[in-house]
Specification:
The structure holds 2 protein chains of 2 kinds. Chain A is built from 13 helices and 9 strands. Chain A is α/β, with parallel strands linked by helices. Chain A is globular, with a radius of gyration of 18 Å. In chain A, strands 2-3-4-5-6-7-8-9 form an 8-stranded parallel beta barrel, surrounded by 8 helices. Chain B contains 6 helices and 12 strands. Helix content of chain B is 25%, strand content 29%. Chain B has a single domain, classed as Rossmann fold (3-Layer(aba) Sandwich). In chain B, strands 2-1-3-4-12-11-10 form a 7-stranded mixed beta sheet. In chain B, strands 5-6-9 form a 3-stranded mixed beta sheet. The two termini of chain B are 15 Å apart. The longest helix of chain B has 14 residues. The chains are: A alpha/beta, B alpha/beta. The interface between A and B is large, with 37 and 44 residues. Strand 1 of chain A pairs antiparallel with strand 7 of chain B, so a sheet runs across the interface.
Chain lengths: 298, 196
């Protein structure tokens, strides 16, 4: 094997990394202790943050990339992949996370967007990206920009699964609705969705997104996680739901097992017993429009 | 009822393994009496002719093996096992990290994430003993092996260490043939198991 023939950061390596996360739970953590709890519980990766989304909501102001010292502390603590969030369009924050060695970058609406017109050109990076999407058009645009994983946005920091369900249904339902349509009809629909036609044709042919599709934004219980899996998610991000519950280690283990056995209600019942209080949660209808994170980026 | 290949479906790139086996079965010119199925429960393991342990996170898969009482049936399984990346870590006798409890089915020691983090993941052509020409391999946060015991045949090695091993009907690889379109290693595995 000649060193000059090694290739790094190819599309297949990026999408392959995402495939290795399938069937897994990715947990938000804010320090090394939480990261170790997540790893011990069976998380496939952790998202290193300064604050979980529920606390970002409470704090208000501009939410930015986490302090690199926190991210490095978490990278030192665990052997599983570590992800980090950057603001939509903030390609320098992404360059910083890449230089730290994070394994995947989340270009996230949970942080305050830095660019209202463009997302990051993710093809320029060696590390893979995950991006949020509310519908099929948004997912197609992010994949076109180089996202190696999609996560449905849901509504982060609410502990309310209703938006996650809405977004997963949007994406899966639109793909199902296009099955059996002619290439011409699909191309026509691509114009409405503001999606690249070739990517939409590929998606319809496969019957699923061409990259891994996780669920995020509001998953707070084992049943929530299994619900998203039964709706077709490849895996689940859990943000505030674990470390805002009364017994995070137990909640973390229970959600991992519920995702593993998402089609077995008896197991979900067993792991849900005596879990203590899940995070309190928010009714989406009580949010002001400027507090709804999913509207950021499109 | 033909031969049955299971893919351990606790976590990881299970569907890629299922598709790769289906492709390999077609490419081998077999009569199609082999099928590939996901397996999650101990009672599913006994009736298999061969099993794949996929790529994924070895800490997670190791934990779920114990949680689902699969350790004993996996160690006692008498069919072939095809293991990639995290699967290779689980096949080892010893792992450099106490967070993973390997199955110890093959006599070698393994180092997790031996090349570093995701940005150090790479693809390259590698030489595998017995294949007619190089194999294009995808290494994703890949492990490498050292110190293979006398019963284990090393079939691939690069500067960093051992990347491919075989012992009877077991095959362990630090890369992911299931992500590419080259069925040669899958076909060889099926032949080693007497299934094609």
């Amino acid at each position: 094997m000649k060193l000059e023939e090694l290739r790094f950061g190819t599309e297949l390596l990026k999408r392959g990394f995402a495939s290795m996360q399938k069937g897994g739970v990715i947990m938000d953590v804010v320090n090394a202790d939480q990261a170790r709890i997540a790893e011990e519980a069976g998380a496939v990766a952790v998202m290193a943050l300064e604050r979980v989304p529920a606390d970002i909501r409470k704090a208000g102001g501009v939410a930015r990339m986490a302090d690199p010292a926190i991210i490095l502390e978490i990278m030192d603590a665990v052997s599983i992949p570590v992800m980090g969030k950057v603001r939509i369009g903030h390609f320098v924050e992404a360059q910083v996370l890449e230089s730290l060695g994070v394994d995947m970058i989340d270009e996230s609406e949970v942080l305050t967007p830095a660019d209202e017109q463009f997302h990051i050109d993710k093809h320029q990076f060696t590390v893979p990206f995950v991006c949020g999407a509310r519908d099929l058009g948004e997912a197609m645009r992010r994949i076109q920009e180089g996202a190696a994983m999609i996560r449905t946005k849901g509504e982060a920091g609410t502990g309310n699964v209703v938006e996650a369900v809405r977004h997963m249904r949007n994406i899966m339902g639109e793909i199902r609705a296009l099955q059996g349509r002619s290439p011409q009809e699909i191309t026509d629909r691509a114009r409405d969705l503001e999606a690249p036609a070739d990517l939409l044709l590929e998606t319809v042919r496969r019957g699923r997104l061409p990259v891994v599709n996780f669920s995020a934004g509001g998953v707070a219980t084992p049943s929530d996680a299994a619900l998203m899996m039964q709706m077709g998610a490849d895996g689940v991000f859990v943000g505030s739901g674990i470390f805002h519950s009364s017994d995070p280690a137990r909640m973390a283990r229970a959600i991992v097992e519920a995702v593993n056995h998402f089609e077995d209600p008896a197991v979900i019942a067993e792991v849900s017993k005596g879990l203590g209080k899940p995070m309190r949660g928010l009714d989406i209808h009580t949010l002001r429009e400027d507090e709804v994170l999913q509207y950021r980026g499109r | 009822m033909g031969a049955k290949i299971g893919v351990l479906a606790l976590q990881g790139d299970v569907s890629e393994h299922l598709d790769a086996f289906k492709n390999a079965i077609r490419a081998s010119g077999s009569d199609g009496a082999i099928h590939a199925v996901p397996v999650r429960r101990r009672q599913d393991i006994a009736g298999l002719d061969a099993l794949a342990i996929p790529g994924g996170e070895s800490t997670t898969i190791s934990r779920l093996i114990d949680k689902n009482d699969l350790r004993t049936p996996l160690i006692g399984f008498d069919g072939g096992i095809f293991a990639t990346c995290a699967g290779m870590v689980l096949m080892a006798r010893t792992v450099d990290d106490p967070r993973v409890r390997p199955l110890g089915l093959m006599d070698f020691s393994v180092r997790r994430n031996a090349f570093g983090r995701q940005r150090e993941s790479f693809e390259a052509d590698v030489e595998i003993t017995g294949l007619d020409g190089p194999f294009h391999a995808f290494f994703i946060r890949a492990p490498v092996a050292d110190h293979a015991g006398p019963g284990v045949c090393v079939t691939g090695r690069i500067d960093e260490g051992i990347i491919a091993l075989e012992a009877g009907r077991y095959m362990a690889l630090s890369f992911h043939p299931e992500l590419g379109n080259d069925p040669r290693l899958h076909i060889r595995f099926l032949k080693n198991c007497g299934l094609v």
